[in-house]
């Protein structure tokens, strides 16, 4: 068997050598950034959907119908997700480019960490002292009775990296809640949507921000636009791009210190 | 292990004599080993799952998952996708069956119980009969649950007219032979892996003189209707699936599986091969052939 394979390599020497050469170059490319020769983990922990791509007509229909459904039934988080995926193409590209410009962002794109109850140790986080980022996060989760597993997987974005950016954006939503200390009721979610609008510019955030308040009472709406929206737009546009933060490395950090570093101030 | 492609390339290239002499013996032994290995690890037969091809043993599980996902929204989705027309099809199905009083029906892949309920209602309304019996059989426990809940809310919940069973249409081991007057399978047979086995079991469980009836999606002949139907199937139905049931993939499977099912003529042949006697063509096209009603008698 060994002889037969060397036989084929003798016959196809040129092709074989060339393939090996390019493979070697690729290897060295991979290791260029690392001082130690640690192999970078293969990014197979996240791949985009393997279904065939949907047509543009279907995309439009899906965008419009998911927007209407989300408006009529705000509990359908998956409809907001679909709306984001079908309308977000340019903006997700911009988000990815934003991540590529930052060192931590590049590392996140390379390693593709996922936020799931199997990848983050929630019992450990709730054991951390009060005032740390990890503890605040678990307090938020317990207060709302949610887990990080409720996020829908990206379906309609077919590029691995862009799909990962969208997935990361979805999974970091709860971190935004912890950092901005906004509650998870309708008002808080809308304020956060305005914040995300300032940060990412995605049409889904714009639509939710404009049509969402129609569901509120007039008093709540007044409070939203008087207090929360100015804060959200101001804070969102001046603070660091929040997808460039490797949250999994900051569990122990004091949350006020973290807010200072990121440029987030709380609503008064 | 040398790959088959490499082996082909080797045979087709012109080999220099010394390499040929050196390598020939090992080449022969490798190829023999390769062929023997090929027979040892016989590849599992594949079947279709929508437009994909999967090993046969996997299809049942995959279909099971699909129906588990859609069970709660199945009836709503049927109304939304067919714009209510599926009720007309099923109503016509029951009227064609025209069951008499005291008929025993075996409704396979009965799921949420449309046919079973329609059958009992027909007997009650047309004949004033309360002795008709239906055994609702389905392979998926979730679909059967939905069916049971529906019957619990109906006027039949305290009668013993409807019984529920979990079973595989390809192997109805719990059903004795020659025991039912009518066997129906509505929109279920295309999800079965081995259609011929289903037909054989249908033949076995029917009494002599019994009727086999099958409602299934078919091929549309009219080109204009066909293009509209294709557009609707592939562009609109998965969107409805995503919006209402939050599950696009299951409905993508549904429309693809319709395309992979044999045509009305081919299916009528299969029914004949199972031993049934068919009348005329053996099928009736409904709505331009979108749905076909197949019928056969055990004589």
UniProtKB/TrEMBL annotation, chain A:
One of its GO terms (molecular function) is zinc ion binding. The keyword DNA-binding does not apply. Zn(2+) binds at residues 173-174, 177, 189. One of its GO terms (cellular component) is extrinsic component of mitochondrial inner membrane. Keywords: Lyase, Membrane, Metal-binding, Mitochondrion, Mitochondrion inner membrane, Ubiquinone biosynthesis, Zinc. Its cofactor is Zn(2+). It is a peripheral membrane protein. Lyase that catalyzes the C1-decarboxylation of 4-hydroxy-3-methoxy-5-(all-trans-polyprenyl)benzoic acid into 2-methoxy-6-(all-trans-polyprenyl)phenol during ubiquinone biosynthesis. Belongs to the COQ4 family. Component of a multi-subunit COQ enzyme complex, composed of at least COQ3, COQ4, COQ5, COQ6, COQ7 and COQ9. HAMAP family: Coq4. This is 4-hydroxy-3-methoxy-5-polyprenylbenzoate decarboxylase. It comes from Funneliformis mosseae (Endomycorrhizal fungus).
Automatic annotation (TrEMBL), chain B:
It catalyses: a 2-methoxy-6-(all-trans-polyprenyl)benzene-1,4-diol + S-adenosyl-L-methionine = a 5-methoxy-2-methyl-3-(all-trans-polyprenyl)benzene-1,4-diol + S-adenosyl-L-homocysteine + H(+). PROSITE patterns: SAM_MT_UBIE, UBIE_1. InterPro entries: SAM-dependent_MTases_sf, UbiE/COQ5_MeTrFase, UbiE/COQ5_MeTrFase_CS. Pathway: Cofactor biosynthesis; ubiquinone biosynthesis. The keyword Nuclease does not apply. One of its GO terms (molecular function) is 2-methoxy-6-polyprenyl-1,4-benzoquinol methyltransferase activity. It is found in: Mitochondrion inner membrane. GO terms for biological process: methylation. Its EC number is 2.1.1.201. It holds the Pfam family Ubie_methyltran. It is a peripheral membrane protein. Its main location: mitochondrion. Keywords: Membrane, Methyltransferase, Mitochondrion, Mitochondrion inner membrane, S-adenosyl-L-methionine, Transferase, Ubiquinone biosynthesis. One of its GO terms (cellular component) is extrinsic component of mitochondrial inner membrane. S-adenosyl-L-methionine binds at residues 112, 138, 168-169. Belongs to the class I-like SAM-binding methyltransferase superfamily. MenG/UbiE family. Methyltransferase required for the conversion of 2-polyprenyl-6-methoxy-1,4-benzoquinol (DDMQH2) to 2-polyprenyl-3-methyl-6-methoxy-1,4-benzoquinol (DMQH2). Component of a multi-subunit COQ enzyme complex, composed of at least COQ3, COQ4, COQ5, COQ6, COQ7 and COQ9. This is 2-methoxy-6-polyprenyl-1,4-benzoquinol methylase, mitochondrial. The gene is COQ5.
